[in-house]
Every structure is written in structure tokens, then in C-alpha cells.
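Exercise 7b. C-alpha cells:
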């Protein structure tokens, strides 16, 4: 393949406007979220075809999205009542759901290298401080370890 050569088209007309895109660590899968409605498609780069799609994402809109390093899970967040949902892409079922305090603004999502845990970083919208809250979610055991607050730098 030549540099800048197209490897294929998505061929999925439900995505009207792309809000988020995220590759797996090895570059074999790509998740694409729509900006106009809560739809995510999963594209298998190696096969050049759609591997799956999520229509009922449990949130009204997608604010953040993260594909796990091994491609087995997709974390999305958003909605009027801020929620983080983790989908098992093998079964297309929810493997975990966590509602965030309404007074918190979600900053970021990050999977652990083994895809078993999800870090959720948020900040209180009520405080004038830039203090961040970091929550480590063990998805398999559905439990949280509260991490100490850290001031935002820069």
C-alpha cells in the first residue's frame, strides 16, 4: 500500500457527523461516534469492514469515548445525567455503568493496559479550584478505588 492510499470506506450512512474516533493500541480496530445522535460504529481495519455498531448507548449524547487496548471494551460517557457506560464488544452488552455526580465535569477516560480497569477523571463544576478527582473502576469486579485529588497543572 502506498502512503496516503485509501484502505476503504466506512459504508455506513448512519454517521452524519463524526464526534470522536479512537483506535485500539495495535491499530486493528477503530471506534467512531456520531455527533448528532448516540451511535458508535466499530471498524475492523484488518478486514476493511464494519465489525459492529451500538445504537442504544444508554446516553443521550457521547461526550467522551475510549476503546480498550485489546479491543474488547468500549467506554462512553455523556448524557444529561452524566454516565459512563462500558460495553463488552464481544457480546454487545453493557458490562458496567456508573453515574457521575451531576456537579462533576468529566475530563477524561483511560483504560488500563490489560483493559480490566477504567480511570475516570473529573472536576467539580461547583468549586473554583482546578482540583481533579480520579476514580479507578475495576470493571470486572464492579468496584471503585477512590484516588487522592490532584491539582491540575499548566
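Sequence design result:
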Amino acid at each position: 500500500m502506498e502512503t496516503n492510499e485509501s484502505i476503504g470506506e466506512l459504508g455506513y450512512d448512519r454517521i452524519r457527523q463524526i464526534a470522536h474516533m479512537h483506535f485500539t493500541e495495535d491499530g486493528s480496530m477503530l471506534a467512531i461516534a456520531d455527533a448528532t445522535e448516540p451511535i458508535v460504529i466499530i471498524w475492523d481495519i484488518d478486514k476493511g469492514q464494519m465489525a459492529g455498531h451500538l445504537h442504544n448507548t444508554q446516553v443521550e449524547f457521547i461526550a467522551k469515548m475510549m476503546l480498550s487496548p485489546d479491543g474488547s471494551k468500549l467506554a462512553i460517557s455523556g448524557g444529561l445525567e452524566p454516565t459512563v457506560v462500558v460495553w463488552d464488544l464481544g457480546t454487545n452488552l453493557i458490562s458496567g455503568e456508573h453515574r457521575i455526580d451531576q456537579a462533576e465535569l468529566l475530563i477524561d477516560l483511560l483504560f488500563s493496559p490489560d483493559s480490566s480497569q477504567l480511570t475516570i477523571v473529573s472536576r467539580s463544576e461547583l468549586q473554583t479550584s482546578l482540583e481533579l478527582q480520579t476514580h479507578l473502576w475495576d470493571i470486572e469486579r464492579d468496584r471503585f478505588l477512590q484516588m487522592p485529588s490532584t491539582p491540575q497543572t499548566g
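Instructor comment: The mean pLDDT is 80. The first strand starts at residue 18 and ends at 23.
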